[in-house]
Amino acid sequence: MDNQGNKILIVGINYSPEPTGIAPYTEGLANAIADAGADVRVVTGYPHYPFWRKMDGFSGLSSVEQSENLTVQRLRHYIPRNPSFLRRILMEASFALRATWATLFHRADLILCLSPTLLSSAAFVIRTRLLRSRTPVVLWVQDFYGLGASETGQLSGGLSSLVDRAESWILRKSDHVVVIHPRFAKHAQDILGVDSSSVTVIRNWTHLDLSRSACAREDTRKRLGWGPEQKIVLHAGNMGAKQGLENVVDAAHLLGSRQSDIKFVLMGDGNQRAHLEELSDGCAGIEFMDPVGGENFTDVLRAADALLLNELADLRSMAVPSKLTSYFASGVPVVAATSSDSASGEEIALSGAGVRVDAGNPEALVREIEMLVSDPVRADQLARNGREYVHETLSPGSATTAFGDLFDGLINRDSSPTRPTQARAL
Q1: Is the CB of residue 170 less than 8 Å from the CB of residue 92?
Q2: Does the reported pTM lie above 0.85?
Q3: Rounded to an integer, what distance in angstroms lies between the CA atom of residue 277 and that of residue 308?
Q4: Residue 395: pLDDT band by 50, 70, 90 thresholds?
Q5: Is the distance from CB of 424 to CB of 108 less than 8 angstroms?
Q6: Looking at the DSSP assignment, which residues form a beta bridge with residue 334?
Q7: pLDDT band (50, 70, 90) for residue 422
Q8: Which of 296, 337, 342, 275 is nearest to 315 (CA)?
Q9: What does the pLDDT read at residue 259?
Q10: pLDDT tens across 294-342, in order?
């Protein structure tokens, strides 16, 4: 990776200190490219995910944080408390307008746009085309809008088709598309019509820093009030529509009726948390925790007996949850309630790091968990498989090297090999 002196502009609404989702990957890539010698500018929003409210400590209309080779410009935008598809579009529109204006006179050798958000990606693609700029625009796709909206039931029929067409146009007009899974590449090529030569698969890596773990497992469990005989099944991350966590509440009620020593813990936030807490009222088989970050996050994952991934039954190709990379690295076996033909189900099979049951089947979920926690030899093997998969497939070094090589190729494609490139006006 040789990005020495290149000016890289990264545009995406999610960034640190958001603890989950896309933010850790955006921050990790920005830091890696800056460390390689590039001049990196990140234009992002005010942190709000997965809480769907502005984090404390951030005020005003904008702010700038600067360190060596890295500038982070934050822009305030609309944040919906209940993020329906249309409200999220309004949020993205408000961010896109501000991001476009804030970078109007910024010069860059390459622009990397995160999707989500699609509207800001569209704005930069359109602007470079209208100005006939030679600055390459790369889209880093973490989720597909049309596919996600249709699989979660937010859009159907003509509206879903319209979103697909818009997404197709934006991806095809960009200079290159990076996707996080081979299944995503197939969707981009076969459904959205993106040329295969313009698509690169770069897997999301684990952003869990195992060296930062500060507490022994027993100390963490004691601090959290988890008894030594309890079997804790932890779900970490967003509590939104696509997680379908009503299935977990139903499973918890089953456990409560059996006076089981297994307990579900849902750690995080999201627009469905209040609803789930209401459904769980009086149930001894489940508890809720606020999200934690840094070394505390590592400690909590390691203190669990199993880590839970739960998805809607109809969710198949939409996304590969970012939590899986941390789960695999934690040394704790995974239980996935997801369809066998989903991208998540494929990751579980490829990694050998966990067990899968059909989504939306609480009886099967309880049964599989009971078998797993009663078989420590099997659980240990699944945990080892996860760590090996992280080392071989999901290392941050291989991902950032792939990005650096891609950026070098796009920046230098029209440049003389003997003359350094100059930053191009957007």
Answers
A1: no
A2: no
A3: 18
A4: confident
A5: yes
A6: 307, 354
A7: very low
A8: 342
A9: 81
A10: 778 889 999 999 999 999 887 665 567 778 988 999 999 999 999 888 8
Longest dimension (CA), the chain: 73
The 10s digit of each residue's pLDDT in 167-199 is 999 999 999 999 998 889 999 999 999 999 999
Total number of residues shown for the chain? 426
Query: Residue 415: pLDDT above 80?
Result: no
DSSP structural state of residue 176: E
If you compute the radius of gyration of the chain from its CA atoms, what whole number of angstroms results?
22
359-364 LR contacts (CB < 8 Å, sep 24+): 359/244, 359/247, 359/310, 359/311, 359/312, 359/313, 359/315, 360/244, 360/247, 360/312, 360/313, 361/247, 361/337, 362/247, 362/248, 362/250, 362/251, 362/253, 362/254, 363/251, 363/254, 364/337
The whole-angstrom distance between residue 241's C-alpha and the CA centroid of its chain comes to 15
Residue 365 tokens, joined: 């979920």
Calculate the alpha carbon distances from 119 to 15, 73, 94, 138 in Å: 17, 18, 9, 14
Q: Is 225 left (phi over 0), alpha (psi -120 to 50) or beta?
A: left
User: pLDDT band at 90, cuts 50/70/90?
Assistant: very high
Token output for 28: 């990790």
Closest-CA residue to 400 (of 3, 11, 69): 3
pLDDT at residue number 303: 95
The string of DSSP codes covering 288-343 is: EE----HHHHHHHHHHSSEEEEE--TT-SSS---THHHHHHHTT--EEEES-TTSH
SS3 for 131? coil
Query: Parallel, antiparallel, or unpaired for β 62-67 and 70-75?
Result: antiparallel
**What's the DSSP call for residue 212?**
G
Burial of 71 (0-12, 13-18, 19+ CB in 10 A): middle
| Token output for 15 | 């960034």
| Cα separation values, 326 from 19, 100, 186, 299, Å | 12, 33, 25, 12
pLDDT tens digit sequence for 99-132? 999 999 899 999 999 988 889 999 999 999 998 8
Q: Domains in the chain, please, with CATH?
A: 7-205+395-425 (3.40.50.2000), 210-393 (3.40.50.2000)
CA-based end-to-end distance of the chain = 24
How far apart, in whole angstroms, are the C-alpha atoms of residue 15 and residue 72? 9
List, in order, residues 6 or more apart from 104 with CB less than 8 Å away: 426
